[in-house]
Amino acid sequence: VLAGQDVAAILAAKSALADGASPYFIASEVLFLYIWVPLAVMSASALFVAPGLLLALGIATPRDRFEHWLLKGFTFSLFGVPAAAAAVQAISGIPMTGAAFTFLSVLLCLPGIGLISARSNPDIFRGRGWDVAGMILLPLAVLILMSPKFYWEALNDDGAHSFLNAMLFITRGLPFWPPESGAIGGYPTPKMVTETFLQTGFMRFFGPYEVSIRLAYLPGLSILFGVMLGFVRTPDGRTDARSVLGLGAALLLFSFVMAFNPSYNPYFADIALPMTREPMILLGVLGYILFFTERRFGWMAGVSTLALVTAPNGILLIGFFLISYFLLTRPLPFRQV
Is 127 left (phi over 0), alpha (psi -120 to 50) or beta? Predict the structure, then answer.
């Protein structure tokens, strides 16, 4: 991560490549664009989620499976790592960017490592080789196949607002604009804020560049892939290659559509927003369903924040699930619902 923290600045300097004859494959820059940058980005993604995943593993119970661990760990990291960086920066006065943020992220891994070393942990990784492989290869494929969209596209209005929100969180220590900010202060709000936490982390790693906030899509996509695989395993709990390839292809298509279409202009969407936040809505809803059906209501409430504080449609999707569960369950689950 330290060796690759300048990749965003170098990409910005190479923006003229986007106007070339073949911006989706530039043979003269293969090593940098399609090997070194993805390696640096995947390393930063892993480090960002590592504190939460290690903590979740350290407190895991025999009931926990691979998808439980992913949901808990991602929730811990998403809210915990940016909040810790803001708190340390406010107390110490040291800007938590670049090497300082990397060092802090490593320090935040220590509580989880301590818990893991002090107790025996459930064997939640057995038979999960295909899951892990898919979680690594899918974001790599999305980044490489749509590299100019990530690296060089100009921000649209939503993306520019998202960029300013991440800058605000870093400089002010809070993700919300002061009251005197005017119209720009209408977003983020307590009901639409998770993408700002995630994008702030990547801006702290790579600097205030447009590509930084787009790269924040990749860890959410990876975790979403791993969680969704938990719903399509074989009856004996195995994940087979066909499930990984089929679901991976579906999420690759989802990423393509979200990268190009959901915006004011149907052919000029921005990965920075809304694409970055969509995995978190789905993770919150799937996590709610998973823990609800297992009657683990505390974790249900905690993980569902991924949806409830990302966008208003999160609560609608959860509501639709509860309605369908009530209508299709017999005897009627009055107490549970």
Answer: left
Task: Give the CA distances from residue 166 to residues 158, 170, 275, in Å, rounded to whole numbers and listed in that order.
Answer: 13, 6, 16
> pLDDT tens, 123-176?
888 889 999 999 999 999 999 999 999 999 888 888 899 999 999 999 988 889
259 within 8 A of 265, measured Cβ to Cβ: no
CB 73 within 8 A of CB 112: no
Round to whole Å and give the CA distance between 289 and 230.
12
Query: To which residue do tokens 């979403």 refer?
Result: 224
Pairwise CA distance, residues 53 & 55, whole Å: 5
Q: Which residues contact 53 (CB under 8 A, 6 or more apart)?
A: 69, 70, 73, 74, 76, 77, 112
Token code pair at residue 32: 């940098």
Determine the Cα–Cα distance for residues 198 and 165; give it in Å rounded to an integer: 11
**Cβ-based neighbour number of residue 198 at 10 Å:** 28
Q: Which two tokens stand for residue 127?
A: 């038979």
309: tokens are 């504080």
Using only C-alpha atoms, what is the Rg of the chain? 20
Query: Kind and range of the H or E element at 240?
Result: none
Nearest C-alpha neighbor of 171 from the set 42, 51, 236, 85: 85
* H-run or E-run covering 34: none
**pTM of the predicted structure, to 2 decimals:** 0.93
3-state secondary structure (DSSP) of residue 239: coil
3-state SS assignment for residue 269: coil
Q: Which two tokens stand for residue 90?
A: 């406010």
